[in-house]
Amino acid sequence: MAGIYFHVPFCRKKCTYCDFHFSTTFSGYRTPLLELMSSEFNQRLNEINEPIETIYFGGGSPGLLTPKELEMLLKEPLRIAGNQLVELTLEANPEDVTQANLSAWKTLGINRISLGIQSVNKDILRWMNRNHTVEQSISALKLLEAYGFSLSIDLIYGVPNQEVSDVLKVIELLDLFHIEHLSAYALTKEPNTALDRWIQQGKTAEIDDEMQIKHFYTIQHELKVRNFTQYEVSNYAKIGQVAKHNTNYWEGKPYIGIGPGAHSFDGVNTRRWNVSNNQRYVKQQQWFELEVLSENNIWNECWLTGLRTVNGVSLDKLQSLGGISSKEAEELKKLMVEGFLRLENNQYKLTDSGFLSADRLASVMFRV
Question: Do the domain assignments include residue 261?
Answer without folding.
Answer: no
